[in-house]
Amino acid sequence: MLALVIVISGAYLLGSIPTGYLVAQLRGVDLRAHGSGNIGATNAFRVLGKGPGTFVLLADALKGSAAVLWMPTLAIRIAGGSPSDSLPLIAGVAAILGHNYTCWLRFKGGKGIATTAGVMATLVPNALMITFAGWLIVFMTTRYVSVASIVAAIVLPIATIFTTQNRALWAVALVFGGLAIWRHRGNLQRLRAGTESRIEFGRKPTPQKP
What is the domain partition of the chain in residue ranges? Predict the structure, then answer.
C-alpha cells in the first residue's frame, strides 16, 4: 500500500510540473494569456517559437517516461516489496493526470498529448510509433495540431491492441485516448465554428508581452 501511495503521489507531482508555464515565465510571458491559453507544447510553439516549444514538448514527454521508469523502482526501494506490473501503468496514469490537472495552477494544465507519448513510448513503443505516424500524416495534411491529436487518441488504443497481448495496457490506452479527446473538447467546438488555429510553417511566433 505504501508503495502504491508513493507511486501515485510521486508520479502526479512529476507530471504536474508546468513546463510550458515556467518556460514562458522565464521570458516574461504568461502563456495562459496568449494564443489558446493552454500551457502545453502546441501553444508554446505558437507563442514562444520553435526553440522553447521544442523544449516544452520534450520535457513534457520526459515527465511521462520518467514517471513510468523511476517511480515504481523508487517506491519499492522505500517501501519494500516485490515489483509489480501494475505500478508502471499506475505511474503513467498519475503523471498524465498531473500534467492535465496540475496542482500548481489551480488544476488547470495541458492536454496531455506529449506526456501520454512519453508514457506510451516506455510501455508500448511500437504502438506509439504507429500512433505518431497517424498524427504526422493528419497534421501535415490539415496543419491542425488538435485534429492530429484527436486522431492519434483514436489510433492509440487500436495500435496497442494490435501490438501487445497485455489487456491492462489495452484498458490504459483506451483511458489515455478518451482523456485526450475530452481535453480537446474546446478545440472541437472551435473546429465546428471555423475558428481553430492552424500551424503555418515560417510564420513568426505571437508577439510577446511583458
Answer: 1-112, 124-199
